[in-house]
Amino acid sequence: MGNEYYKEQLNxxxxxxxxxxxRIIESPSGRLCSIxxxxxxxxxxxxxxxxxxxxxxxxxxxxxxxxWGFGSGGSRLICGxxxxxxxxxxxxxxxxKKEASLVFASGYAANNAILSSLPQxxxxxxxxxxxxxxxxxxxxxxxxxxxxxxxGNLKKLxxxxxxxxxxxxxxxxxxxxxxxxxxxxxxELAELKRKFEAVLMVDEAHAFGCVGPGGKGCAADMGVLDxxxxxxxxxxxxxxxxGGFVAGTNEIIDYLINKxxxxxxxxxxxxVNCLAAIAALDIVEQEPQRRRRLIENGDYFxxxxxxxxxxxxxxxxxxxxxxxxxxxKATEAAxxxxxxxxxxxxxRPPTVARGKARLRISLMSEHTKEDVDRLCxxxxxx
Length: 382
Fold this sequence. Notes:
alpha/beta
């Protein structure tokens, strides 16, 4: 195959407007960033509550590094499991009223490990078509039969469940969809779970810390947290750090510890990451105004977009897509906004379906009304 094949594929991506490059950020994660010495207003970050550069968390990390060093030294089952790991897992389980939790290196690693190990050969995994790639990758890597249902189409999901022919069904969904900003109907999913005695797995990555009482996520906001058998979220978005976790019954967590290759064969995250996450959870609990500001910013921006007759799909959150359809058009819009002082990369296939390219606007609690108005003015000029 050689390098010529790769060159040809890369040239195809360039010609289709799908070529990707990493940009270098020269400042900490926050509302503003520096790129090539120029200040940009950031509207693409998952640092929803502005905690990634919070001085209290940084102080916790400094002290934690003095007490625990940096690396964990091994996999969690060898010598990489520390007191802070256990403290964080206990805190998360108590917060979500689950029996236990388990921390992974990332949310991707958690989803991949769960779905590649829990479902067995005659089990059925039913996945909303627009879930995060980690859920699909994990399901395909495992033994269960994988079927997707059209986004939000619970009638189709019900028909798939009614067909039977499986030992155990796993219903898998995001709670807040990362590219469209809409929410799953978790109440209806909980009803289907009960009716068909299925396992309900919900990825709350973009809602955890931001939505619901105490930032517990969409399931808690909709009153069905107890119905979620496998609760997954990340520590890299609202919590502002790195890592992921799953919460559920003692048996599920113990099974993952003993059977999940994605847990067994990887080094544990540093203890300081766990201490930082605990400090962030304290702030989430003590400062609900951050969540309120975030949600209000999302409401205000969506209202402004509708006034400009922009296609924002079914967004109902602080994640707002502006759908252009054409990848080249989205790329050009992102470049023009960059020239006006905004950081908003274009989202193109394969992250979204062909014909669904977009600018994905993600609000932060730290954005001001003036920031949003400035963005709307710039978009209006495109």
